[in-house]
Write a structure and sequence with these properties.
Layout lengths: L4 E5 L4 H12 L4 E5 L16 E5 L5 H7 L3 E6 L11 H22 L4 E4 L27 H18 L4 E6 L1 E3 L8 H10 L6 E2 L5 E6 H14 L5 E4 L2 E4 H12 L3 E2 L5 H18 L7 H7 L9 H7 L6 H14 L5 H4 L10
Parallel strand pairs: 1-2, 1-4, 2-3, 4-5, 5-6, 6-10, 7-9, 8-12
Antiparallel strand pairs: 9-11
Helix pairs in contact: 1-6, 2-3, 3-4, 7-11, 8-9
Amino acid sequence: MQNPWILVTGATGLIGGTLVRKLVERGEKVKAFVRAGSDLRGLEGLPNDRCLLAFGDATIEHTVYRALSSCSQLYHVAGPFQYMPAHPQQLIDDARYATRAVLGAARRRGIENIVVTSSAAVLGTSSVAEPFDETHGYNLVDAEPYVQAKVAADEVVQELVADGMPIVSVLPAGVFGPRDYKPTPNGQSLIEYLKLPPSFSVPVSEGGISVVDVEDVVQGHIRAMEVGDVGERYILGGENVTYTQFFQMLADITGLAEPSDPKGPLAISLVAWLAELKAELTGSRPALTTRLARDYAHSYVWLTSEKAEQALDYQHRPARETLARATRWLLEHGYVPSTVAERVRLELRPV
């Protein structure tokens, strides 16, 4: 095939849009698979001769099949990243349908180079502050629908891998970074933090997460396509931090609210309930829900990317740099009122 194209689903999202841009910068020809009416800001400025819009719906196989014409590679990144959806079961079902439809179209086209974006969420959590790897078993019950959707999609992928499809899966950790236009719940959590009064004490619990920059995750995708082993799953993690460390980094970067002493489950559940109530009253999406508080407060999603580091030469930057980059982009693009942005001083304090 002469000058083959690469199809990227979910091209208007944080990971998908950054991936499209990085591939184009590398000289690749990319079809950005998007829904009609999607927000295309993340794709602005890309050259028309190397980036085409392919309109369709990831849950409808023939639209993906059409988009895969003249393609030799597929990155299936599409998947909703939202908490407390209006129709939880539909979110879960759509993730399953989309995965089966996209990969079904790839099979019909004979695509042999496929990377699927899953999530570290499919590995569950741990009660101890020790990193875990791709072998960790999922251990949540009645989780947030977003998590259930990721698990449902991963089950389809594993079924198709067992049936011989040439798929490599990547499992990003907590992704932050520039060009979070929509924004994701992770980006929204930064926005809500920036709006807090500087004297406010951010309620935190024991536990922690792995913070990774979107550009490091995208580079992990590209390396997975280049050298990843078919059928394998690779964690694309970052720096493992406690929730206290996470908000202390933000406080050091911005000069704003410090974290509280760790709170108990009841206090964090109350914070989550208030976030849900605010979302219902304002028609917005919360960055924290009661299910997330139940499952992740006082738990750890600390990850090791050793497998990806060895097989893909994967690397990640420090969490502080990631959070500073993400925060600066949100401020520069007007995601908080100017009166709020004026009181923020990035990297006000020394490292």
